[in-house]
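FAQ

Q: What does a record look like?
A: Structure on top, sequence underneath. For example:
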C-alpha cells in the first residue's frame, strides 16, 4: 500500500509540469480594456492590432469558419421543391368561374440522395473543420512570433539607450578634459604630443558616441515598424 501511494504521488508530480506547459493563447496578446499594463504588454498589443499580417490571418480564420458553415449545410442541396402552374391556379389568379379540370399535385417536393453523399458530405465538413483548425493555429503561431519580436526589439532598444547614454557621458567628460589640455597647451603647460593624443582620443570617443546613437535610433525605428506608431506615443 505504501509503495502504491508513493507511485501515485510520483505520477502526479510527473504530470503537473506537463499540464503547466499548456499555452493560454488568450494571454499571449492581452485584450483591450485591461488597465495598468506594462510598456511591454502595450507594445505587444499595438503590434498585434496594427500588423497587416495579423489582419490577413484573421480574414483567413473568418473565411474558414464560413467554409465550415457551408459544409454543414451541404445536405440541403439534395432537397428541392417545384410548383405546377395549372388551370386551377390560373382560375384563382384571373377570377374566372369557368369549370376547369384540376391537376394535382400543384407542388412537388423531392429528395435526391446519391450514395456518395453519405461519405462525401461528412468528409467535406471534417476537412473544412481541419482547415479552420490550421488557420487558428497559424493565428496562434503569429501571436507567439509577434510577442517574441516585440519583446526582443524593446529589449534591444533599452540596451542601446543605456549604451548611448554612457557614451554620451564619456564624450561630455572627455570634452572637458580636451578643453583643459588645449588651455594648458596654449599656456605652454602641455606638450604637443599630449595635445595631439588628447585630440585623437577625443575623435575616437566621438565616433563611439555617434555609433551608439545610431544603434539606438535604429532599434527605435525597428520597434516602431512592428508596433505601427511612434514610440513617443506609447512611452
Amino acid at each position: 500500500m505504501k509503495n502504491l501511494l508513493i507511485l501515485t504521488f510520483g505520477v502526479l508530480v510527473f504530470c503537473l509540469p506537463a499540464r503547466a506547459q499548456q499555452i493560454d493563447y488568450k494571454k499571449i496578446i492581452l485584450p483591450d480594456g485591461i488597465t495598468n499594463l506594462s510598456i511591454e504588454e502595450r507594445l505587444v498589443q499595438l503590434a498585434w492590432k496594427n500588423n497587416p499580417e495579423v489582419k490577413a490571418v484573421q480574414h483567413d480564420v473568418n473565411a474558414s469558419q464560413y467554409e465550415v458553415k457551408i459544409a454543414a449545410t451541404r445536405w440541403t442541396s439534395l432537397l428541392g421543391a417545384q410548383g405546377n402552374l395549372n388551370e386551377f391556379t390560373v382560375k384563382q389568379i384571373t377570377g374566372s368561374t369557368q369549370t376547369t379540370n384540376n391537376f394535382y399535385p400543384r407542388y412537388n417536393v423531392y429528395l435526391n440522395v446519391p450514395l456518395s453523399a453519405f461519405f462525401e458530405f461528412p468528409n467535406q465538413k471534417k476537412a473544412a473543420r481541419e482547415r479552420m483548425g490550421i488557420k487558428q493555429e497559424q493565428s496562434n503561431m503569429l501571436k507567439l512570433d509577434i510577442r517574441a519580436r516585440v519583446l526582443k526589439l524593446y529589449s534591444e532598444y533599452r540596451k542601446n539607450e543605456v549604451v548611448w547614454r554612457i557614451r554620451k557621458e564619456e564624450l561630455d567628460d572627455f570634452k572637458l578634459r580636451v578643453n583643459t589640455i588645449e588651455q594648458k597647451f596654449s599656456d605652454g603647460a602641455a606638450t604637443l604630443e599630449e595635445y595631439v593624443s588628447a585630440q585623437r582620443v577625443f575623435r575616437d570617443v566621438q565616433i563611439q558616441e555617434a555609433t551608439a546613437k545610431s544603434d539606438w535610433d535604429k532599434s527605435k525605428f525597428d520597434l516602431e515598424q512592428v508596433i505601427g506608431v511612434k514610440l513617443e506615443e506609447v512611452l
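Q: Is there anything notable about this one?
A: The chain is about 75% helix and 5% strand.
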